[in-house]
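Many introductory courses stop at the sequence. We go one step further.
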Amino acid sequence: MVAGNAGQERNWGPARLAGMSTVRVGMLCHGVVGGARRCLGTWQTITKPHRPNDGSPPRAGSCRRPGSVGWSFSPHLFLLLAAQALSLAVAEMALLTMDPPWSVIFQGESITLRCQGPPVHKQQPTAWYHNGKLLEHTETNTYRIQNARYKQNGRYECQSPGSTSSNSVTLSVSYDLLILQVPSHAVFEGELLQMQCRGWKVGSLAAVRFYRDGADITKPYTSAMQLSIPQAKAHHSGRYHCSADMHSYLSLKRRESQGLYISIKELFTSPVLNVASSAEPLEGSPLNLSCITQLSPYRPHTVLWYLFYGNSTVLQGPVTSSEYQVPAVGLMDTGFYSCAVRTESSNVQKWSPRVPITIKRVPISGVSLEVWPQEGQVMEGHRLVLHCSVATGTGSISFSWHREGSAEVLGRDSRYEIPSTQQSDNGQYYCMASNGDSPARSLKVQVTVVGVSSPFCSRVRALLLLAALGTLMLGAVVVHVLTAGSRAPKGTKQQTLMEPFAPGGDV
């Protein structure tokens, strides 16, 4: 140990928030200017706060300004501290372990602490802390406690070069005759949970029993003086203690250890299935699912495997991707979806709650109606044709035809035809289309049946009759002229219809 560092308070300055335990930034100075050192800034560790505005001048060569409380600021120093904070923000957390790995030892025994961090190019000292105070720096990544005493009880942490502060471990130095030794490190789901019952003198125990929350759990986990649970689960958390017969002179005496609480840590959280868009996607649209879980930062290198289920059938997995996509869903994809997350060895596996997903058809829209003859005017006795179509919509589409003011359904096809129209067919017609969801309706079209007795029809018949009479009269004139010309005597000059009579001439 380095006695000069004992009891030094741990630095919790701004850089400590980025994972640094202590910050030692040299004074950034540019030599002597006018008898004074020109400095960009510095961070100083202060045991007693400098009283602001006390009138005392700054020390020669110091970068502290009057009234400062320990550091002076400049943009250059800010960038330096920001760069250090950024580099350590992504650094790994150091791992602190004990050898032997027990949190309780007898007084006078020895134990070694080991600080494991990422490899660095240059050997740098490792910092050790006891109950939040700097203990010392060592050139190696180990710290040895020999002949342990009560004063060495407490919480230990370390920080190796290139890492953030480690997890904490607790050491308890016991003066009891019987102790239960449990792991000093955190035990996670799926890991081995091991403990042992020890007496002050080796080989002095008999009839060892183990208890959790007062219940005897000696079988089937025990072997001699140890209890082992190969794959710990959350329900194995609880308060443990042991009891044993100990030799005391010429007799045996039953003794119990102090109880210790063991908490099995969660390796990763129970997953939740996330639907990226909506739990009611439209038919033909993509479906994106994500299986969300959080891995413990103390086990960052654990590989998780994901499985996706639809109606209890495996859709994908096990894979290391937490995403699943269906490019285009159909009605058959409706159902309950879930996901599972497990470790590579499958000793820890958790399922998400089931999520109902209902695939809906693309709604019907843009219903239009066409009529022939155009504009809906048709002669009585002639044929009328109506046609219904949709712009968008998926699935099987059904149609129905209606006339305003009537509850009767006229037809159930996309085409509706009246072979011979009657006056009773006058009215406003429309169609409706549906694919199982809410039906959509077209605009109305007016159908007018033109009857024989209508004024319009009379005018048409009169015009047609006049045209026919004119044609007959013209034909009769042409026939008469041609006949007369063929009967005239030879040598007689024929006068055409277009040749006028000469005045006073012979007939």
